[in-house]
Amino acid sequence: MNAKTPDALLRQSAAPKSKWKDPKRYKWLLSPALPVVGIAAMTAYAIAPKKLRALAWTGPALVHGLIPALDRLIGEDTSNPPDDAIADLENDPYYNIITKAFIPSQYLMTMLGCYLATRDNVPMADRIGLTVSVGALNGIAIVTGHELGHKHERDNRIGAMLALAPSFYTHFAVEHNFGHHKRVSTPEDPASSRMGESFWKFLPRTVIGGFKSAVEIETKRLERKGKGFWCLENELLQGWAISAGFLAANVLVSGPRAVPFMLAQGAYGASLLEVINYIEHYGLLREKDENGRYVRTQPEHSWNSNYVVTNLVLYQLQRHSDHHAFPSRSFQALRDFPEAPQLPGGYASMLLPAYIPGWWTQMMDERVIRHYKGDLDKINWDPERKDELKAQYKELAEKIAAEFRDGTIDALTADTPVVDVKPKVRRRKSAA
Fold first, then answer.
1. pLDDT (tens digit, 9 = 90+) per residue, 208-244?
2. Within a domain: residue 364?
3. Which of 44, 129, 194, 370 qualifies as a cystine partner to 57, CB 3.0-4.6 A?
4. Residue 213 domain boundaries
């Protein structure tokens, strides 16, 4: 990659402005519009709870139904902003403003959902629906926190904490930036899933490992400044205080029932983050150089997707290779790398398969083997199943390796399974 870093591009701000205009400039408003949709749905439910009971389930309907359907309907967009437009995109405050715009309505939506779910005489099915609806939208808010957390300005760091607080996952801002980005696609990274590892096996490993990593990172940072863990400068304590304060506010408004509601919706929201983590690096492994150090993160170490609607909702998180190459690059400037491994669908479409181990294995395992041209030694395996799975996939790997040697397939089509995998990749088409 010969692309310049965002800092280098910013130094070019005196250069003539690009004539290129972002065709998705106002479509990015789709993400901060989601909690507004949640507020509208819950308000309608509050007015007519018996007639409009289905609105209690708006969150999962959006995440698992409407967004994946729109992805398939609208398709993909592989276009990139030109190099001379990157500096303008990075310097335009509009994008940072709309990212932060998510947070006020997120808090209102959460408090409204909490109030409705904790009223007397609310059917249990509605309580569950409201809980997962709020959790789903707070799970998307974690991506807002992710975007803001990669910025260095104090207001952006505070915004990241605020977006993460309703899910009780503020430690993510520490571990992700200084842990995951350092160890990504290695066996040492709790947020990188291994081939043969189901999501349900990955989940406790990443939750526990990520929390421990955040505490260790913050403790060492404070030690370098001559301070102990229990000090006001501790970002973990700051985040936990915001979460506790928001929980207390909901208890004050909705009563003691707010506690189980807030914990349940937070757990569901955090699980959505972790299932995205599971998807992003499944089975991918950075090799070690001659000195025993892991090679620099490259496009080949992240699963990518260009489905338009999920990209609009998740701030182009699906262009994950560019994000890992340039973590401080803003979402509107992220680029597609044709050589990066591609998923068969958008992140939203991959959530349900990830929850079902057999379905996920059918969709992804051969795709990983093809990515490595049949070389099973290059895969990041679940160590407890490595020998079993290498024996299971030996024949398939040999066949794939032979196809590469014979020129039957090439690197550009290597990630598309053709053996024993039913889901098909929709043909790419450009969409603004």
1. 999 999 999 999 999 999 999 999 999 999 999 999 9
2. no
3. 129
4. 6-351
